[in-house]
Design brief:
The complex is a heterodimer of chains A (about 140) and B (about 280).
Chain A lengths: L2 H8 L2 E6 L5 H10 L11 E3 L7 E5 L2 E2 L3 H10 L5 E5 H6 L9 E3 L9 E3 L6 H16 L6
Parallel strand pairs in A: 1-2, 1-3, 3-5, 5-7
Antiparallel strand pairs in A: 4-6
Chain B lengths: L1 H31 L9 H11 L7 H22 L4 H20 L4 H32 L4 H4 L6 H4 L1 H14 L28 H22 L6 H21 L5 H26 L1
The chains are: A alpha/beta (about 140), B mainly alpha (about 280).
Chain lengths: ~140, ~280
Amino acid sequence: MGLVDTARVKSPWILHYDCGSCNGCDIEILACLTPLYDIERFGMVNVGNPKHADVLVITGPANVRNQRVLRNLYEQMPDPKAVMAIGTCACTGGVFHNCYNVLGGVDKVVPVDVYIPGCSVKPEAIIDGVVLALAKFAGKGGAK
Amino acid sequence: MNDLLIVLATIVLGPLVGGFLFGIDRRLTARLQGRYGPPIVQPFYDFIKLWSKSRIVVSQSQSLYVLGYLLFTITALCMFVLGQDLLITIFVLAFGGFSLIMGAYAVKSPYANFGAQREILQMVAYEPILMLAALAIYMQTHSFMVKDVFKLNHPLLISLPLIFVALLIVLTIKMRKSPFDISASAHAHQEIVRGVYTEYSGPYMALIELTHWYELLLVLGIIGIFWATNPIVGVVLALAAFVLEIVVDNIEARMTWPWMIKFVWTTGISLSVVNIGLLWLVR
């Protein structure tokens, strides 16, 4: 693994987008940032700006209203980038899957690299998922 | 020839030292918050990662202004290291800050424009203190040259203690730390996203990080010359000021810009003016 790949793996900046989740998964994501789990020790920073982000972390199901916003956020992120679907809703639509406005999992709108099921997901599962996402992230090669 | 070597050393070694200082900053901040924190070399990982990301240019002139920010700041640092005119160093540093603002204004993003306005207010707040500090140093050395500070037989801190305190305020603003992190905060989810930096991404953001490392060194250098009789004490003094800023950053809330202007103009400028007045009376 070259220097650039190492740097990418060591410094994934996370953008968190809530597609309309019940906030259960959002709270677990924020729990990862607290002193108990402290994901900043792996260089992860929760950024509020898609232009600075490397990993898009999505909670909640994609629906007719938010798909435009979700796609816009994804497109604003510079390459290379990874997408994580956090929680059952983001993976498949979950309990909302047959609602009239729900499209299903977020992979109906943006390409997803890592699916992390759970309702709500445990912080340990999120950290596991991030490790998986980073392995894919490192393999994505040079910027397009 | 000797000067050229000093300039080259500054340009090459400057970011190494500055980057490590930022790494120490993040580690110390994490420890103060009861966390473990990233490795000390984290800023270098961030830099390489940002550098390797794809370019997204929102406005063509933006990339030019990033270069302006970088080059003016390097120029200011090199002038300082060579012992040149302190006043001109401060002006060149201000040109750098101005480039960053112009870059943020070159795009239509409301976040960047808000950040740029606040960055102007920050400059409006700290520039008078830097000028007064240069004036006070002039009253001691009878020259604006940095190298003449080293010819004094007593440390500047003895005769300019209040100016020193005012410069600590400038250091906080320049490092964009609480309570003055109003134009751009490192912490996510604030009302203006990343303020002036919002529209810079990838390699341009990397250049901005690089500039911060040079900028930090310059401001710490200006603090360090307050004990120029013994350079080791000067370095310790600058590092102590740096650690103090990190502690202040963690115990202070983020304040608004009207509060910043009021605080810096009343406390900062009166500290400086009282110090200069005392010097004038004693003379």
